[in-house]
Specification:
The chain has eleven helices and 13 strands. It is an alpha/beta fold and 320 residues long. β7 and β8 form a beta hairpin. It is globular, with a radius of gyration of 20 Å.
């Protein structure tokens, strides 16, 4: 992780001499109102934790930076950074992590709302389970229903086959056909998982540095999976505490469905190329392409769409 990009402008830096316990990193992109709600909830629900907030706006066009600066620049706990370009999730987090002073790093999505002192409780949980190394919690939607995407299970060829063949979508509640989603687990209690997602992701700053942070080859999606995959290799065991709960609205910064799909497919291919051997990777790539072709054919024959989403995804296959 290098020094911040020369175009970055530090609008307000913390002046506290004593390092905080937790450095909260928020990367925003066109989520102005949600971002404000998120930061307000941090301040309101975290009265007894020493923290700093490192915030970067990734070139939003909705006034996110000005809104955050206008409301929080007078708080010495805030470092507010503006960028004229979209660095993506991985690189932007790395830039802010390089400035962090806390013992812990907490990655928090801007489309979240902190509930019931969740960040304080997550930090205490981390202290009680130091050997796990990466800690997360439970996420819910605004209506209180479970948002199960705060963590995922291990990647396997079987899990990939179930997804690309459609079995996962036909039997979403099945442990056999939807193994990565932990479908029978309501995110209550405590459970070790394969990966914690970046919406609520706590890690010791020293461990983050030892792992090298996020791989900058990932733009958005897949970076936390890659980090957790590497963390497992060092003996860490990511863990979720279901008693720590926040609202996570989800998919708020991605306006283009095809754009999101391309990024997800690109992330998957990068992950499998890096973490699986050549034979397994070629099998996985063949599965992914076959799944796209099957959906493309169904899209054209059943729905009569010659230029649907899957056709466009196939045309852009060189991107992923």
């Amino acid at each position: 992780m290098g020094a911040p990009h020369q175009e970055l402008r530090n609008a307000e830096a913390s002046t506290h001499n004593d390092p905080p316990e937790v450095s909260i990193i928020i990367v925003s992109y066109n989520t102005r109102e949600m971002t404000l709600e998120c930061i307000r909830s941090i301040v309101a629900e975290t009265p007894d934790l020493s923290f700093e907030v490192l915030f970067i706006d990734n070139g939003s066009e909705d006034g996110s930076f000005d809104a955050v600066r206008g409301e929080f620049e007078s708080d010495p706990r805030f470092t507010i950074v503006e960028s004229q370009e979209n660095h993506g999730f991985a690189r932007a987090n790395n830039l802010l992590a390089a400035q962090a002073r806390g013992k812990y790093l907490l990655l928090l999505n801007p489309d979240t709302v902190v509930l019931d002192r969740a960040l304080e409780r997550l930090t205490e949980f981390a202290k009680s389970r130091p050997g796990n190394g990466i800690w997360g919690g439970r996420t819910i939607y605004a209506d209180g229903s479970l948002n199960p995407t705060s963590c995922w299970g291990r990647y396997t060829l079987w899990a990939l086959f179930c997804r690309v063949s459609g079995l996962t979508f036909l039997r979403p509640s099945s442990r056999v056909f939807n193994p990565r989603s932990y479908p029978k687990w309501k995110r209550t209690g405590i459970k070790e998982v394969f990966m914690v997602t970046g919406c609520l992701f706590l890690i010791e700053t020293s461990q983050w540095s030892a792992l090298g942070g996020f791989d900058r080859d990932f733009f958005m999606y897949g970076e936390e999976a890659d980090l957790c995959w590497r963390a497992h290799a060092t003996g860490l065991r990511p863990i979720v505490n279901g008693e720590v709960c926040i609202v996570h609205h989800g998919s708020s910064s991605e306006s283009s469905k095809i754009g999101k799909m391309i990024k997800i497919f690109d992330a998957d291919v990068r992950l499998f190329r890096r973490h699986w051997g050549p034979i397994r990777f070629l099998i996985a790539l063949g599965m992914i392409k076959s799944g796209v072709v099957i959906r493309l054919v169904a899209e054209r024959l059943i729905k009569g769409k010659k230029d649907g989403v899957w056709s466009e995804l196939w045309r852009n296959r060189k991107v992923w």
